[in-house]
Amino acid sequence: MAYRQAIDATSYVFGDLRDLLAKATPPRSGDRLAGIAAGCAEEMIAARMALADVPLQQFLNEAVIAYEDDEITRLIVDSHDARALAPVASLTVGAFRDWLLSDAATGVALAELARGLTPEMVAATSKLMRNQDLIQVAKKCEVTTRFRDTIGLRGRMSARLQPNHPFDDARGITASILDGLLLGSGDACIGINPASDDPAVIGGLVRLLDSIIARFDIPTQSCVLTHVTTTLTLIEQGFPVDLVFQSIAGTEAANRSFGVNLALLREAHEAGLSLKRGTVGNNVMYFETGQGSALSANAHHGVDQQTCEARAYAVARAFDPLLVNSVVGFIGPEYLYDGKEIIRAGLEDHFCGKLLGAPLGVDVCYTNHAEADQDDMDNLLTLLAAAGVTFIMGVPGADDVMLNYQSTSFHDALYLRDLFGLRRAPEFDDWLVRIGLAGTDFRLAGNAGQLPDFAAKLIA
Amino acid sequence: MTPARVALGRAGSGLPTEALLDFTLDHARARDAVHAAFDVAGLTASLGVLGLEPVQVASLVPERRDYLRRPDLGRICAADSRHLLESRARSSCDLVLIVADGLSPTAVKLHAADVAARLLPLLKEAGVAVGHAVIARGARVALGDEIGEILRARLVVMLIGERPGLSVPDSLGAYLTYDPKVGRTDAERNCVSNIHGSGLGSVEAAFKIAWLVREALARQVTGVALKDESTEAMVARLAKPV
To answer: What is the ipTM of this complex?
Structure first.
């Protein structure tokens, strides 16, 4: 159906819900590239005014991508929990925003609501919110997951240790792992993006991580971020796989371009569960997402990139993941042009993911052809920590020498811990104290220049 | 062991000043590489020395910020460039060599003429004539499809500046597309990437490109169907005394 908004003498008409959502979206280059953005600032606000009056119920009647055409739409519709939505079912998008900001929307209320919300409802609401609203509401959400440690508890923030190497050299990777552990990173996971897609190399990396984690009894989990079919093969061959990784997107066609569908993800999830390698829980999936991926695969169906991204979280939550990571600035300036657009997108993704019940972390990052620098990343990092982000990346010196982009560093995590008093996953914090890397206050012990016993062993 | 920035030390929870400045210098260099002016006159002169007479064309991109935001425009020839190419098109030719700014004009300035100088004798030896040379501004890789189609090339080789990394701001890539025409996908191209001082040298790069040119023309295909097996041939060739 069409949506209308009059402003003075101008009557703005939006063809359907998809068009209304796209036009209401804060400016970003990807939506302009797709040709679906508002033509002027006034049209954008007209779209938001019209969107504010749309009842949440309308999102259950009008799909942005047809049910018949897209298995993600079918997943969203078929798994919708109408009873969970009941407390806010009569509200419009605008009234729902007000409710989210109110004291009635407690952490418990939001957790109970999650399965009643569709990604489109959540994306729509975010488009009416300022950055402070996105931070405030996300902060109320608590999404907790477990494998060998407990991630997402209030007052805590985890970090993925990302020890990538341009040609997967085991010693080089070990050096980066050591650096990260010494700086207290790695409680979300130790996760390598391999340069190679050769299963033999990937298998070697899986064993390397397993041996380090087992040898020093580190309460964390390993992941080698390769295609899910490769991981399935490794599981069949008996490799010690902890987390099963896959990049996912919010449309069936975009997932097809990644070489996956829901059935394959289900198979991978079950294979991961069957290994029973978790000690305090069995959330075995690690997903990565990012605004613009559907457009870049020419698979967006005219849906704006932020709504597509929220739909990816609906895919993620169907598989009880340990970690969901929005790699927000990786895709480049044709989707998110500058620091302002990256910061906005990072806060939106975190808000949408958390409201939908996904354990959302953010790879706060940028490429060298984007109009962004470390100051922009400091801003986003600080805002996300204020919003209660589940985890961030820890890359040596923030410089990923394999993927050639800038992320966040082990130091950045320390900065946030100092600034906000954020602790790590409790099991990991205890481990750091036990091996002498942290004091009883869980802050890193002073660097006396002498390697702890375990570190000396690791590089021997 | 690793080029990663490990063992930086710390100042409180932050980076020590030296590590901070090292990082910002590398980022500054990468930024400069992205936004460097494309020296078309200098490039024309250095290709001229090699006996090439390059045609100068541009995409629809009006300026650099549009280039970064609108990759679609970087894949389409400007109208006057198209007319110029049409006026040059003759009967079909084996090869069109395109040098394009891409994401690092710095890489093109530092390495393109050198690679071309090493490549031309190898092509001559293989009996492959360069039908046209083209310098393209505001170009994405796919611009070569339209250029090659207008010039009726059997094969296009495009030398183009790659996205600058923090450690390497001047990496050049070479993209080969057989039977170029608008709408080709990246799966239908071969790429020799990472051509720079501390990566693939211009001698090795030229050898790989020439090997791929020969094989592409012989097998009438580029892309996933043409695997780069040049390493073995290169080892044999470069081991021979010159």
So the answer is: 0.93
